[in-house]
Amino acid sequence: MYNILVCDDDKEIVKAIDIYLSKEDYNVLKAYNGNEALKIIRNTEVHLVILDIMMPGKDGIETLEEIRKEFSIPVLMLSAKSEDSDKIIGLDLGADDYVTKPFNPMELIARVNSCIRRYTKFGSIEVKEGSKMYKSGDLVIDDNLKKVMIEGKEVKLTPTEYNILKFLLKNKGTVFSIDQIYENVWKDEAYAAENIIAVHIRHIREKIEINPKDPRYLKVIWGIGYKIEKID
Amino acid sequence: MKAHLHQKRHFLIGVNFKSAYLGRIRSEMEELIFANDSYKMIKDGNNRIYYTNYYPIYGIGDCGNFLIIYQDKALTNIPFSEKTDTLAEIKEEVIKKDNNKVNFCYENNEYTSNEPEFLDDYTRGFLNYNTAITYYSSRKTGAITRNDYSGYDYVGSEDENVIPEVDEIPEITSDTASYSVSDVSTTSLTTDTTNVIESETAQEREVEQYTAAIEDFTIYTSFITELPENSEIALVINTMTQLKPYEQQIMIALPVSVILTLLISIFLINSIGHVKGKDEIQLTDFDKIPLEVMLCAVLIVFAIFGVSIEELGADIMVSQNTFFTTITTVYIIIFAVLEIFMVTLIARIKAKKFLDTCICGRLFKWSVKILSEMLDMIKRWLLKIRDSIKKTQKGISENIKLTWKLIGAIGIYIIVSIVLVGIFGEFGVILDGIILFYVMYQVLARVNSFMKLEAGLKEIYEGNNTIRLYKDDFTKEFENCVDYVNDISNGFENAVEESLKSERLKTELITNVSHDIKTPLTSIINYVDLIKKENIDNDKLKEYVDILDSKSQRLKKLTEDLVEASKASSGNVSLNLEEIGLIELLNQLIGEYKDKFEEKNLEIVTNLSKVNIKVKADSRYLYRVIDNLFGNISKYALENSRVYIETEIMEARKSKGYSKKYI
């Protein structure tokens, strides 16, 4: 049982999140402002904090700063502010994820699961030298077993999808155009590759990403190509 | 050595010295005729003897003695003493034997000399030609004058009548040495002796004209051939003789010093004005003193030292050493001053400040500026006139009043001009010119103001609302205009700022409102979802919940779009422009939508350019444009139809475009 603290000044939202997370067998603690949240964190073992930004009194950003001074527990920010600049501020201050309101309940649950796995069970997989394993963050490919793991869970990919993902992960951080991916994976000159690759990429994204529209690992650089984000 | 020097001197000074000395004798002969009581005079029987204060000949010094006799008068430079108070004694003293002296005598038309022959000839020729002296004697008083103006009495000065106006006198060239004395005497005799020539004017004034020629004189002279040590010529000759042994060294030293001077000059010219650590030519405060002042200072120094050299040259008593030491010092000072002047001059030229650092240059620049401004003004004025002529041609009948005013003004001007010229004559023309110039200046100033006003209005018209006009640039009549223009400009600027501000506020409002909407919306979406997850048996209720679900999702999308739309409309979107491949983007998006199209059995027909078209755009926004388009296609296109995706490069508009159709 993991303790998850949900902090939002809107009681109905806290309640709804409580309902969703309880179904997933989490123990939910509730707070309605920053000070309450801090009190609970100091007194109880908390495994994850879901924190709203716009709250009366101590707001989410200040609360996050306080938490980060004492604890290293994962924090998921929740906010109606959807500007890129707001997200960047939150992530810079040490938040682990950022979900904008109104959120899709399933996405929220997936992100909570992901955070919990990352910071508790999963830890980090050691990549032995010489072994045919590639990784970026919690995305791991074991080329010997032909297995793809995301946050410790195996994902089933078709052979083509597997090859594309392996190629991108081997060269993580580098952007490749459709033609380059085709030539490297098919070992053939690109001919009418066009949207075939794009379709495959979308399928991979749907399988490995929580929100395929806002991918964490497989990023789309529109008009240029694709890359696997380099995450330590 | 001594003998050598002697010969050399004789040769060097022969003609020059002789002509100077003979010239002196010649003038002493004239003096004798007009000799008066200002000289020391004694009587020797019937003869009167005058003692002159003979002064040294410039550059040669005291170099000879003479005794000149004319009629009953005699003149000598032998100082008076008891031993020299008769003609015989004086003559003895003059032609006394001396190794260093040469004598010549002219007695009873006989010329004798102990000179070498070629010098002899020269002396004879000189004397014969130059000794005819005309003078006038009053019949009443016997006073002797040099011309017939009885009022004047210029004793001792030279006169144009000295040379007799007689054609028969042969032309004497510089070659007089070959001219024999007998020839001269015959011609001279025919012209005059003591003949009395009476002219009408002379008779009226009771004046007789006389001409004295060489034959009337008896001359005893002696002059030195050895120059005095302290004479200037001797000084030069001595120095040259001393330097003679070093001739070879001088011949080497001269080009060496010339080359050295050149090298040093080149180095100096190159390095002038450069200061360590600075690239530009540096001018010191000294270099900023007006060039004219410097030039005056230099000229003053030159004048002072130049005069002192002259003085020095004149003072032949100076010893050789003193002479050269002084000259060298003076030259060093002069060259030092010159050098300083040249250095600052070169520095100024190098720094391209030559004109700025001299008064004349500044005046020149200033006048060029004034001139160009005037030309500019005239040019604009002429253009304006051309325009106004065109306008006037059209509107002359309408503006008849203005025309009359103009004609009246011209008429008044003409009348004023006539009056001015009538009263003041030539001066009136100048006055008239000044008036015309003044009127022209006033007119031009107004035309100029008008042009500036037009330029300012044009700026505002073109959208530059920060333009401001300054009253000082305009004539009085335009002050109100300037105020109006500035007000308009101010108003525009304020209006633009206001509208920008209100746009910003609007965006902020919308953003805040949408945030406020999002919070309750989150609850709605979440609880609708929770309702859906409950097992509902009632079909109607299910249907209603579905509607709630889809509409709340739509509301979510709308709030997000609202923020974007208001941002875009207020210009708060910052675009991150980069080169992106349009074909690549289209392929990526087709990949994204392929499944959705296939769900509705939409067949994709692509006709994309083989070349990857590069466009400069913000990829996220361009993506959203096409994403929206594809989203709409997938939602609203008729099922089982075809989607055409084509790209086309439109050359005519020099832009790349793409078109999509769906059927």
Mean pLDDT across every amino acid position of chain A: 85
- Report the count of strand segments of chain A: 11
In which order are the strands of the major sheet of chain B placed?
1-2-4-3-10-5-6
Secondary-structure element series of chain A: EHEHEHEHEHEEEEHHHEE
Summarize the structure.
Chain A has 232 residues and is an alpha/beta fold. Helix content of chain A is 42%, strand content 20%. In chain A, a hairpin with a 4-residue loop joins strand 7 and strand 8.
How would you portray this structure in words?
- The complex is a heterodimer of chains A (232) and B (663).
- Chain A has helices at 11-23, 34-43, 60-70, 84-92, 105-122, 159-170, 178-186, 194-208, and strands spanning 3-7, 27-31, 48-52, 75-79, 97-100, 133-136, 139-142, 147-150, 153-155, 218-221, 225-228.
- Chain A is an alpha/beta fold and 232 residues long.
- Chain A folds into 2 domains: 3-122, Response regulator (Rossmann fold, 3-Layer(aba) Sandwich), CATH 3.40.50; 133-228, Winged helix-like DNA-binding domain superfamily/Winged helix DNA-binding domain (Arc Repressor Mutant, subunit A), CATH 1.10.10.10.
- In chain A, the strands form 3 sheets. Chain A has a 5-stranded parallel sheet with strand order 2-1-3-4-5, sandwiched between helices. In chain A, strands 6-7-8-9 form a 4-stranded antiparallel sheet, covered by helices on one side.
- Chain A starts with a strand and ends with a strand.
- The mean pLDDT of chain A is 85.
- Chain B has 663 residues and is an alpha+beta fold.
- In chain B, the strands form 4 sheets. In chain B, strands 1-2-4-3-10-5-6 form a 7-stranded mixed sheet, sandwiched between helices. A 3-stranded antiparallel sheet of chain B has the order 8-7-9. Chain B has a 3-stranded mixed sheet with strand order 12-14-15, with helices on one face.
- Chain B is elongated, with a radius of gyration of 57 Å.
- The N and C termini of chain B lie far apart (132 Å).
- The model of chain B is unreliable at 1-14 and 148-200 (pLDDT under 50).
- Chains A and B meet through helix 1 and helix 8 of A and helix 13, helix 14, helix 15 and helix 16 of B.
